[in-house]
Fold this protein.
Amino acid sequence: KNQVEQSPQSLIILEGKNCTLQCNYTVSPFSNLRWYKQDTGRGPVSLTIMTFSENTKSNGRYTATLDADTKQSSLHITASQLSDSASYICVVSDTNGGGNNRKLIWGLGTSLAVNP
Amino acid sequence: DTGVSQDPRHKITKRGQNVTFRCDPISEHNRLYWYRQTLGQGPEFLTYFQNEAQLEKSRLLSDRFSAERPKGSFSTLEIQRTEQGDSAMYLCASSLRAYEQYFGPGTRLTVT
């Protein structure tokens, strides 16, 4: 069964600290993996998208890694800020085109709280 | 603001009433998606348009739900005879390429 599992479920860190969120997936075949940030009551905002051939991608203080062999991804947040408090969701697709989105498999997210 | 917009942002309605939500995608995006998200869950795919054609509908989209995109630009999602189980966040997303979706802020529906 295609699944995306994220850990930890929730995380509290102090402002300025770094943290790493994990995503393990069993989706096959694999097309791409995305990390989204979702603030409470808002729509998800894309942070990174990685295809099979990419193993790292950065977006400012966010760096995502992908190991397609072990089917693991991580999202590293550097020098956290209070505004980083949100849910971070890992999404895996096994469809490369056609806009068929029933093949998007969403993780349940990691809830990150950054405290002053 | 050139992002995806949704209206209204919040809707409270009584059970049995009909509601309609609107989504305005990013102007050059030909693909438009509707999702439903309940608390603590990831978004669930409802339906997908490419231009004005509705190409994909989830089984979640019961006969009480209907979506349109008449001119290939904005889209509406209507829920008839709302039930309490319809309470959720309804998200719209648009894209130019299949896997780069931009989400709107969502419409929070509460059915009392």
Remarks:
- The mean pLDDT of chain B is 91.
- The interface with chain A takes residues 4, 31, 33, 40-43, 45, 48, 50, 55-56, 58, 89, 91-93, 95, 98-106, 108 of chain B (CB under 8 Å).
